Amino acid sequence: MFNDIGPLELVTLIVLAVLVFGPDKLPKVIQDVTRTIRKIREFSESAKNDIRQELGPEFKDFEFEDLNPKTFIRKQLDNEDLGLKEIRNGFDLKKEMAEVTDAVHSRDADPSSASSTGSAGSSGGRIDMTKKPEPSAPDDRPPFDADAT
Q1: Highest taxon of the source (predicted)?
Q2: Is residue 125 within 8 Å of 134, Cβ to Cβ?
Q3: Residues in contact with 107: Cβ distance below 8 Å, sequence separation at least 6, in sequence order
Q4: Chain segment 8-26, per-residue pLDDT in tens
Q5: What is the rounded distance in angstroms from the CA atom of residue 56 to the CA atom of residue 69?
Q6: Contacts of 105 (CB under 8 A, 6+ apart)
Q7: 124 CB contacts (<8 Å, ≥6 apart)?
Q8: What pTM does this model have?
C-alpha cells in the first residue's frame, strides 16, 4: 500500500503526527486509523465475494486485478492459445524503424537517387552511415507560425 514512501518521508510523517496530535492522543488516533482501514478492507473483500457469486461459476477464476489494462495485456501476451508470442518475437521493431528511417533519409537527401534505384551506382535505397551529413545553411529555418504557438 505504501510502497512509494521512503524512510525520510516516513520519519517526517511520524514527527508531523506527534506534533499535530500530541503524544497523548497519538496511540488512540493510530488505533482508530487501523480499525478504519481494517473495516474498509473487510468491506472490499465482501463486495468482491458478492460480485464473484453474482457472476456465476464460469467466472470463479476472475481476479479484479485483471481489470487493470496493463495486467490484462500482459496476460494476453503470455497466452499461448493466441499465438501472440510468435508474432511478437518475429517482429523486430528496431529493424523496421531503421529501414523506414533509411528510406525517408535517402528520399530527402538525394531525390535523383530515389528515381534511379535500378542503376548500378545505387545501393538499393540504403544510405552510407559513415558519411557525415552536410551542414544546412543557417537560413533554412522553418517559417514561424504564430497560430501553432
Answers
A1: Bacteria
A2: no
A3: 114
A4: 998 998 899 889 988 899 8
A5: 23
A6: 127
A7: 117
A8: 0.41
